[in-house]
Amino acid sequence: MTKMINWGILGSGGIAHKFAESAAVLDGAKVIAAASRTPGRAEAFAKKHSIKNHYSDYAKLLENNEVDAVYVATTHNFHYENVKQVLEANKPVLCEKPFTVNAREMRSLIALAEQKQLFMMEAMWTRFLPAMEQVRKWLAEDIIGTIKQVRATFGFLFPFDPNHRLLNLDLAGGAVLDAGIYPLSFANMVMRQKPVEVKALGEIGSTGVDEQSTYILKYESGCLALLNSTVNAPVVSTAEVIGSKGRITIPKFFLNAQEVWLELNDQEPIQKNFPHQDNTGFRFEIEAASESIRNGLLENEIMPLSDTLQLMETIDEIKNQLGLVYANDKLN
Asked: Looking at the whole model, is its pTM more than 0.85?
């Protein structure tokens, strides 16, 4: 019989609701506790998702011995302190992307997780989708030859609201951390190495965050990644990997990929479909993290900590070029 992994959730925003809905369809994972520092929110969240324990204090959730692992779903600026608190309570942790606001914070958490011998992973849910598994399979087979370009765009038109966390500098908002992390992680998944050169351009809005930004990455092989993110334009979110023998394309909303095409030179395209329910799209990463914890692993090979650290180092360079400085970056 598969051991049930009981999850606790810190935070009760939209992303936490999707986690709870996704976990509800799994046999080996269950959300049994939720916490929010906003009065009444954890209780309402727990009631909606039939979660038996709710707290207004994160420490109280972490004291619950029935909680096997914790999902951090707070705003970006709190990820570092929340993950640190979870690790110090000796519990495995899955943290929503971006894992931290900068690479310094990430290195500190990796060291603590290693010291505590605890599982830790960035919740990059897109990597665990069946369609992305197919992308990795084709790449492993070297079917498209030498990779020459990686292209990916993710963004959306968000109604301007200077008080929303998405545009709030104090909450580490902006396109690069909220939307750009997905194209950047896609390129990282494909290349599995840091770029040797990074170029970034962005539009800094009135609240001080980037409302749209574009990144060109160059790798040692000469491969170029052309990546784009926005929170102020209705872009089409697609992704493709272009090689010397053809291309792999995710033609529709690559973030929640449900189909993928293989187009080899002078051949008819091969299309594969992997349908799933949008509201339970996190099920694949929850299942993977739960299985890793169940087996006593400290990392998951699909989203290893080395990849997350590479991403944060690249994002630090992008932030530097765009002139983005968050409160987390000013800490000693």
From this structure: yes
Q: What is d(CA 86, CA 58) in angstroms, rounded to the nearest whole number?
A: 9
CB environment 174-205: b (16+ within 10 A), e (fewer): bbbbbbbbbbbbbbbbbbeebbeebebebeeb
Per the CB < 8 A criterion, the answer to whether 5 and 68 are in contact is yes
Please name every residue paired with 250 in a beta bridge, in sequence order, or none if there are none.
Answer: 239
Degrees to nearest 5, angle at CA 324 with 323 and 329: 120
Helix (H, G, I), strand (E, B) or coil at 172: coil
User: DSSP 3-state assignment of 323?
Assistant: coil
The two structure tokens encoding residue 155: 């963004």
d(Cα 82, Cα 9) in Å, to the nearest integer? 11
Instruction: Name the amino acid, one letter, at 131.
Output: A
10-residue mean pLDDT profile of the chain (332 residues): values are 94 96 97 96 98 98 98 96 98 97 98 98 97 98 97 95 91 95 98 96 97 98 98 96 98 94 94 93 98 98 98 98 95 60
Looking at residue 320, the DSSP 8-state letter turns out to be H
306: which 2 tokens? 């080395």
Pick from 59, 77, 21: nearest CA to 281: 21
Phi/psi region, residue 172 (left: phi>0; alpha: psi -120 to 50; beta: rest), is left
